[in-house]
Amino acid sequence: MKLSQQQAAAVEHLGSPALVVAGAGSGKTRTLTARFARLMERNVDSRRILAITFTNKAAGEMKTRLMQMTGCLDTDFPWVRTYHSACYTILKKHCTKLGYRMPLEIFSSYHQQKTIKEIALAQNIDKKHAPAILSEISRAKNSGNVNKYLDALPLITRSRTEGIYREYERILKEKNALDFDNILCLTRDLLRDHPEVQAEYREKFQHILVDEYQDTNNLQEEITRLLLGHENLFCVGDDWQAVYGFRGSNVSHFLSFPEKYPNARIFRLEQNYRSADEIVQLANGVIGFNESRMDKHCFSEKKGAVIETRTFFNEFEEAEWVARKIRTEFRTGVDYEDMVVMYRTKALSLWFEKALRQLQIPYQMVGSKGFFERKEILDLNCYLLAAAFPSDDVAFERIVNTPKRGIGPSMITKIAQARVGLMSFQQSARIMVKERVLTKKVHEGLTAIFELLDAIKEMPPALAIQEILDRTGYLGYLEGYCKTPDEYNTRKDQVDELLHTASLKETLHDYLEDVNLIREDKDDDDGGGKGVHLSTVHASKGLEYQMAFIVGLEEQLFPHWRSMESDHELEEERRLMYVAVTRAESHLYVTSASSRRKKRAKKSRFFYELDEAMDELGI
Ligand SMILES: Nc1ncnc2c1ncn2[C@@H]1O[C@H](COP(=O)(O)OP(=O)(O)OP(=O)(O)O)[C@@H](O)[C@H]1O
Ligand SMILES: [Mg+2]
């Protein structure tokens, strides 16, 4: 792999922690990957290098790259992972030390929300607060110090959040379950409180490499420090691209690297190898509107970008223009996979999906956490969960009357009331079936469910799903549920997709583990699909495309209304804009609509800033 002098210097550096600070497209990820391969040449065992990526997709790409470079196999790189995935592997091995047992269940966001709502109900708190409370809890955990975080909340929010938090954690523990944040929390506890475990991993990981370091949160930082038994830490990042502050990431870890590691070497890369210089300069112009930022010089030797800003009458015209443009460019030889349509919020994707479909242009959604949250996918996965984890009340409650079997809410209450001690819904229902205390219809319905759950428990996941479909007549039910044949076809396609995903795993537990780790990885896609990418800006991080469309550039949308109150948040939005612009290699189109959902829409301040920067650059 070709490297510049600066990149090579970073790759070769040994003997102290190192940080590569550089703008987008300057080859940070490439440098990190090259360093991995170089360490192998120096006889470091690839299994003893921990390389942290931001998404599962990025981990996959890095592994593929490494395989090409070294001729090794996928399995030779077991520790090229996201924080969550690496921590989960550590936890699985040692969870008994924390009072858990295998198999662990990972709570999906559906499970989290249901559980929080129920607790809120029991504590007389309006369940409409549940989502806010859940994200507060999540931020508290990722802050690294829950109590301190809660203490700093306004009194009312605090008492409400704290009460729910404690009960929520109790339930998780009782169910031997984790949520996504607990994967990190518990790994930290494990490493902190169990010196022998810490020693094991300190000895194991001879080198630690971290990509996208600017978006590390406190907990991840703490885990990294606990794992680091030496000075072989290599981080790369760009403070201009810190865009996860809203989720508790803390760019100060990045900025204070030199203080934390006084003997650290700082490397800077200035040349952008991705984009044409006009795009690089435009991106610099955009970020220039932010007050707080490190200074960086970025340039590119490539010239001749196409940059265009456009405003349309409404969202339909905007989407139609984008779709037509995509078709025209495709005809001139640009592959669909080299094009991306980026938006600030996922809700915007609809219009573009529709316009692309109309022109029969293939597309794929990047970062659509939607898949595992779709009704049909949740239904089927909850069957699998209920089979694998009889204590999972959320899953059992969802499937017990889906498809309808005459087991309505009052019956569910009855089952719930019959529980004693730590008994789960499912256990309670099983006892009622055994004791024959139910009406004929309910008895038969439950019996059928239990026969099904018992049958699929040991099956490979794809077979298990097929069995569920066959025995419950699920597709017939789904057809009745859908309002149009079109909707049914889409949902049916998702079920096929699920069968395919499931067929890649051998055991039910492997499958569920994977689903839950990926499901929560909000920036993942199903990988390898064909077509134009549709993506949130967040999910586009680290990726590159010949041609990029940034759409919906209107006030309230981008910057997002929730982030318009403080300068601090507004700057994060502007960094997001910087991320978006720097995805483009040679073509950049930026669009807005004057009216959206029949309401007047105001052009985004970023739109004007872009125009201003373009004027200055004479583009
Ligand atoms: N020395 C080089 N010579 C040629 N191409 C390079 C070189 N370094 C990087 N590239 C290419 O430039 C592009 C951007 O590199 P990379 O994705 O590693 O940048 P990055 O700094 O990680 O970007 P981002 O900040 O967006 O994550 C890639 O296509 C990469 O292969
Ligand atoms: Mg990168």
What does this structure look like?
Strand 14 (584-596) and strand 15 (599-600) form a beta hairpin. It is globular and about 80 Å long. Helix 24 runs antiparallel to helix 25 (485-503). With 619 residues, it is α/β, with parallel strands linked by helices. Mean pLDDT is 93; it is low at 520-527. It has four domains: 5-89 and 185-269, Rossmann fold; 105-175; 277-368 and 528-617, P-loop containing nucleotide triphosphate hydrolases (Rossmann fold, 3-Layer(aba) Sandwich), CATH 3.40.50; 372-519, PCRA, domain 4, CATH 1.10.486.10. It has 28 helices and 15 strands. Strands 9, 10, 11, 12, 13, 14 and 15 form a seven-stranded mixed β-sheet that branches. Residues 2-4, 7, 22, 24-30, 238, 241, 273-274, 542, 544, 582 line the site of adenosine-5'-triphosphate. The site of magnesium ion (MG) has 3 residues, from helix 2.
Named once each, the bound ligands are:
adenosine-5'-triphosphate, magnesium ion
Distance between the termini: 33 Å
Tell me the name of the CATH homologous superfamily of the largest domain: P-loop containing nucleotide triphosphate hydrolases
Number of helices: 28
Strand-residue fraction? 5-15%
CATH fold assignment of the largest domain? Rossmann fold
Q: Sheet with the most strands?
A: 7 strands, mixed
